Amino acid sequence: MTPAERRYMSSDELRAVGSVAWRKDGVAKVTGAEQYAPDIALSRMWYARVLRSPHAHARITRIDTSVAEALGAVCLTFADIPKVKYNERIVSTPPHLYRDRYVLADKARHVGEAVAAVAAPTEALAEKALRAIKVDYEPLQTILNAEDSMRSGAEPIHASVRLGDAEIPIENNVAVTRSIQVGDIDKGFAESEFVIEREFTTHPIYHAQMETKSVVCRPEPDEAITVWATAQSIHNVRQLLGEIYSIPLHKVNVRRVALGGTFGSSIQVNSVIPICVGLALRALRPVKLVSTREEDMYDHVRYPTNIRLRLGLKRDGTLVAGHMRAIVDIGAHNIQAFPFLGVLAGFWASLYRLPHMKYEGRAVYTNRTPSCAMQGFGAPQVTFAVESLMDEIAHELGMDPIDLKLKNYVGLGGTFWGHGPTVQSIVRSDGVPELVGLGAKKIGWKERPRPGSQTGRYRRGIGMARGFHTSGVGHPKATGAEMIDYSGAFVKINEDGSVDVVQSLMDHGGGTLEAIAKIVADELGVPLEKVGLSPVDTRTTVYDVTTHATRGVYAGGAAAQKAARKAKAILLDYASRLLGVLPEALVIEPDVRLGQGVIHCPSLADRRITVGAVAKACQVNSWGTIAAVESLRQVNCPPAYVTYFVEVEVDTDTGNVRTRRAAIGSDCGTVVNPDLAAGQLTGGLSKGAGYALIEDCRWDAQTGELLSRGFWIDGKTPSVSESPLLEDVHTDFAKTYEPSGPFGAKGLGEASTNPCAGAYANALYNALGVRFYELPVTPEKILAALQRKEPAYDARDERRTAVAPAR
Amino acid sequence: MKPRVIHLTVNGEQREVSVSPNDLLLNVIREQEHLTGTKYGCGIGECGGCTVHIDGQPMLSCLVLAVAVDGRAIVTIEGLARNRQLDPVQEAFLDHSAVQCGFCTPGMIMMSRALLNENPRPTEHEVREFLRGCLCRCTGYVSIVRAVLAAAERGAGGEERS
Amino acid sequence: MYIATNTHILVAEFDYVEPTTLEEVFWHLSEHGPQARLIAGGTDLLVQMKMERKNPACLISLARVLELQGMTSNSGLTVGATASIRSLARSEPIGRHYTALAEACNAFSTIPIMVMATLGGNLCNASPAADTAPPLLAFDASVALVSRAGQRVVPLEDFFLGPGQTALRHDEVLRSVHLAESVRGAGSAFVKVARVAADISQVCAAVRVVRDGDHVIDCRIALGAVAPTPVRAHRAEAFLTGQRPDRGRVDDAARIAGEDTKPITDVRATQEYRRHASRVIVRDALTTAWLRAGGRELK
Fold it and tell me: Would you call A195 exposed, middle or buried from its count of C-beta atoms within 10 A (0-12, 13-18, 19+)?
């Protein structure tokens, strides 16, 4: 343990980690000054619009842009773009990167696919020009579900895609498959005394981030480009643009702007970014492209899954064997199907110990909006299935679900598959028992009703589910990785003792960068207010893979800590010259009165100097700047555990469900931002409740159009009215310390929503005595289920004819 | 569709702008007045991101024609703080960490300010009723409701400075 | 067929005029013909235009026409067409005498929409799901339609002709809405079912009952989002009128009201769900209205 860690552990009141302060971007955000990509405005700037396919599946036989050009617009079509087939999410290593798209479509594969684009001096003119483009389509068979897509004779959506250096054929529209086996499931099921199999269906939902995907590109005089874009990694935007447009990377500068929420939908370089760059390069002037909400809704959804899960146990509740078959509808493009199939297996294997397991996953193309990561990346789906089934098993075996889960869960010392089969680490911090105990107490678990015992109109139920997310995708192997995972940081101590942190890490808003500032402050021993987060771009920062996989604090924070530690060594070295004391004998602590860090020797009271005085002396004596740059890969991926207890109230007459209470517990190791961490949990509840009960994306079976047409009237997400009252939401944090994380911290963000849908399904079972295997659990489905369960109740209400049967 | 000149008071300043009948107030604020704190979220009045005050009333600038507000007083999120002194609602949002990605924040604060203008001591129920049109995907609303109640507690109610 | 819209701007091009008197409005209506449309709050029309469902050549704003504003009590209540939904939601007399209308206005979408949207706009838009329509039907509302030729008063029930279709001629303006005088022993209620609170109704219902002792002596039941127009449930009204309500009778009346609905399936709800939920909310609204009328707890 470093001195700084010891200092943290001794609960120094001066520490920044664990303190609450106004966030550094806070004043900008509450005054409207913060700049997001759509807020960038440049002189001579033109506006872009994208022409999108009205067909779900069609060949494009001709595009005529002459009228649009005559209106004064610059146009871009497939003929004009570099014929570089790419994958927009360059987080997987090249051998695992399935590349199936171009900047503009060679063939329309979903309604809303970008076919051409225009730029013009005003948005109104761009719109006019866009509508003047004539496209001839030859419609093809539209395929809107995975089953139809795999049927022999179905129209191929992609004949072939690129993988590595090879063009590989796509058979039966199956984009990729993965099979994983551990032990021998035949033996395992033979040894099992209780076997159960259920099918779970999860649906696609829209990310509903507030900011629509936006980009501004300015061509520079030296053939370079500067880009402002909605992105979870500015470096990946740079690298992909360099690859597509053959621009050397030092001439592609992507600047960080604030993100108006992404929830995973900008891990990939969003499709509008290379389009806007193509237009700017043709127009030779700055071009701005702000997606309309309706375009954005046609651009990305959460992966829908069909999961068939079979589990075998001993009578005492010990899990023995499991078999999971998953079919994933990936929509029109393969953004990250290979890792997705991997994490379904990995998250499953990491929930509960399974000596014998078999997993078979298939990812299938359809003519729908492309599926992509959304908070939890596979965990919300698989956790819903596993936690529902574990609850059902517990009731079948006559056990308390909590006991069954604690008996089998992967905890301290267990092997955690952070991100699929190739990313594994040993669990070294585990707050699960503590959190389960806390949540059970707050929600009144022991006093919950007996399932199905209530008869009145309004029925309450309590449900519990647990889960986690990985903290990053670090793993110990030297080569052969599926995923890139490292961060870098540059830390500089200024001549007045303040500190610049120059790091390309992105903050979704959850407080990742606040955490970075706190970690650097504590590592250096300077007050938090003396640490500045620099505005950054790709030219002045080292690589950071992307803020995904709940890695921001754990991996990005560790990189910043490493750079700060190195800068501190330099600082102490110079201080030792000035104080005449060995560097090893010096410590740094923030001094509230001086408002900066003070270096002193505990054994020699008179040897004291401020950080600023050392830095100034370095300058005056021309010794150099105190600074360090580092990159870091975490070699672990500790689980960020979360437990959910929710209480629902069901109106059995309308089928409406109200969330009455929730108790959410998080084990994120050391809590770096207590206030924002609680906000992550309550945000996870709201999004999880939306996923479980309300939100859905549906497409017209004939045309492939979104039934909502992209209007937010019909893509409802929960508002404040749907959330419980203040006093009914509890958030708790386990008192754990993750040895591999910065100051004991691990991840939090995505975990905060993962078990939520499972908790709702179990609460509904508790209230109604009915299991729900398909999300979302809408009022219609609840009424149908009651109809099946309580015929007497039906007769009174004639529900037999009143409600469409659910599956 | 001839452009016409309209006169507005924007955050206390007299402005004269040339607009077409189909120009939306949102885009005039953002592109002509360069006040980009007011956000486009959905374009159809469903998210609350574009909320501004028009003659003291909270309205959705994505559904207001600029020509229709000739002679009116507009206050945007940029108009709440004066001389770097934050409005108590803004302070409360920071104190209670009611800001995450921040994209809904301007609309949320403008609505909260409007609420406290007409009801200086709202109950939690009244806060929820008033803010139900502002979507936030990050916070789950808990910290936001807490911030508004705290601002009221602090006596942030009453008429806004203008 | 898919239409690539752009809600970021208003793509449509149109003239915009802002008359200050009804006489000027009539002049503009005749000048611009059927291609002109009246605009009040704009919360619906501008959305329809952004969705490219409507494309008027001229917008005639009613925002500054004084004759359309205000609220007056005169053997009932007369509400100017451009009164905002929020002003109705906050009106003390409406809350007291026309409770169902106040409830509908308070449940109307969101606060900024309530501030901007007008009562006349909500009616002229003629959405089958218009939240103010069922309570107004329950209060025997009529609308005053004015043109150069004069004024005609149309019962609200005859005003709605179909989705987006009303009895308003293109040279006419809806001037005001008149609600019948509240009577002793009356009670009313509005109930709405929606996916989330700030949403268009999946179904909504308003009920007004007049009580004499233990009997219902008059009754209005109206529903929204269950037919091409907001509708009265006449058969259920007749069933209950003159009765001593108990739970069974209220249930039966609600069942009859539900049977008479002709809902559709759309993105918000299935036809089956709407029919079922109609029955539930009519029952709930009847029960609440009866209690508000001073009636005893139903047995």
Answer: middle
Question: Could you tell me the pLDDT band of residue A795, with boundaries at 50, 70 and 90?
Answer: very low
Given CB atoms, is A711 within the 8 Å cutoff of chain B? yes
- Tell me if the domain spanning C15-61 has CATH number 3.30.43.10: yes
Supply the CATH number for residue B39's domain.
3.10.20.30
| Residue pLDDT, tens place only, A475-486 | 888 888 899 999
Topology of domain C187-292 in CATH is: Enolase-like; domain 1 (3.30.390)
Q: Where along chain C do the CATH 3.30.390.50 domains lie?
A: 187-292
Q: How many CA atoms lie within 13 A of A416 on its CB side?
A: 28
Chain B residues within 8 A of C9 when measuring between CB atoms: 22, 24, 27
Question: Which token pair is A4?
Answer: 């700084």
Distance from CA of B99 to the nearest CA of C (A): 21
Q: Determine how β-strand A487-493 pairs with β-strand A458-470.
A: unpaired
CA distance C108 to C115: 10
| C11 in contact with A, Cβ within 8 Å | yes
Hey, is the C-beta of B139 within 8 angstroms of any chain A C-beta?
yes
Q: Where are the alpha helices (DSSP H) in chain C?
A: 22-32, 45-50, 85-89, 92-97, 99-106, 111-116, 119-124, 133-138, 156-159, 234-240, 247-259, 271-292
Calculate what percentage of chain C has a pLDDT beyond 90.
Answer: 96
Which class for A577: exposed (0-12), middle (13-18), buried (19 or more C-beta within 10 A)?
Answer: middle
The parent domain of residue B109 ranges over: 88-153
Asked if residue B161 belongs to a domain, the reply is: no
The per-type count for chain B, helices as H runs and strands as E runs, is 5, 5
pLDDT tens by residue, C239-260 = 999 999 999 999 999 999 999 9
| Domain-located, residue B59 | yes
Q: Within an 8 Å CB–CB cutoff, is residue A707 touching chain C?
A: yes
Same domain, yes or no: B18 and B57: yes
pLDDT score of A798 more than 50: no
Indicate yes or no: CB of B43 within 8 angstroms of CB of C7: yes
Which ranges of A284-378 does DSSP label H, i.e. alpha helix? Answer: 293-297, 337-351
**B162 within some domain:** no
Tokens describing residue B26: 């949102």
Q: Inter-chain contact A29–B99, Cβ cutoff 8 Å?
A: yes
pLDDT tens, A310-348? 999 999 999 999 999 999 999 999 999 999 999 999 999
Whether A613 contacts A598, CB under 8 Å: no
Task: Check CB contact of C276 with chain A, cutoff 8 Å.
Answer: yes
Domains of chain A: 3-34+486-632 (3.30.365.10), 375-475+636-802 (3.30.365.10)
Topology of the domain covering C66-179: 3.30.465
Do B72 and B96 sit in the same domain of this protein? no
Q: Residue C123: CA atoms inside 13 Å, Cβ hemisphere, count?
A: 36
**Contact criterion met (CB < 8 Å) for A725 and B43:** no
Q: Residue B84: which pLDDT band, with cuts at 50, 70 and 90?
A: confident
> Is residue A804 very low, low, confident or very high in pLDDT (cuts 50, 70, 90)?
very low
